[in-house]
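Support reply, case 0932

Customer input (verbatim):
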Amino acid sequence: MGWDGRVPTETDTLTELFEEHRPMLLGVAYRMLGRTADAEDVVQEAWLRWTAADRTAVREPRAFLVRITTRLAIDRLRQAQARRESYVGPWLPEPLVTDFGPAAPDSAERALLADSVSLAVLVVLESLSPLERAVFVLREAFGFPYGEIATALDRSEAAVRQLAGRARRHVDEGRPRYDVDPAERRDLTERFLSAAAGGDLGELLALLAPDVRLVGDSGGKSKAPLRIIESADKVGRFLVAVAGDSWQGYEVRFLELNGAPAVLVLADGRPETVFQIEVRDGLVQCVHIIRNPDKLQGLAGPADA
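Our regenerated output:
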């Protein structure tokens, strides 16, 4: 009997099994696609495939669900890559809230998970082929054995190992080569925000690395640079130019996105802008600004529901 007095049905069992693996499936799909809405669509389609599957052919539910989710994500990624060729301005992943509070994993696991969803790494993953990206995500972020990945992708284990090696080398070449204490990053984020909001060019320049980059993602749907801005002088002057009185009446919140401190700016309770910085040697190395409203819808807090 179930807790509510009902006799458990096959549907109950299917649902429980699927829900047990849902967080992992969402994690795989998000790292593959860089958008939570697309990840949720993929997982929903995986659920439909799961309920329609021949039960006698499913020996390992986790392996089956990962295989279906990964293949669906590869198909969607190929479609997305074609659309991104016409994307207006730079493209950044959709921000993902990663502050799990007391439920957060231990420090080592947390560091691995945070790195695998960082904006910098997800941007590098965009340059991989869909198969390379799938292998990298399954192997590096979730630790799947090569044999299991080979089965999921219908490739030989030798081919998967080759894909993994290429993907790992490419990501290692493109990802930032520095680690920063979260408290230091939060402190620098607060100082950066204060200088930018106050239009203090001198203070900003003192915080920016000489070769700092500013990457803005608006998708052409709001104001943001359509090209990457490079150098401390150009980035500082841009931030001062857009400051002025534009911060008056806005709400600012600090939160953790993609494994690192970030700033969410709300206008009339609606998410409008996300700022996140990368840090090296105590200076801001890169500024990510996300203003595409389609990518900010999921960031409204309880007060905005």
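We compared this against your earlier run and they match. Two observations from our side: The CA atoms of residues 21 and 62 lie 7 Å apart. DSSP finds eleven helices and six strands in the chain. Please reopen the case if you see a mismatch on your end.
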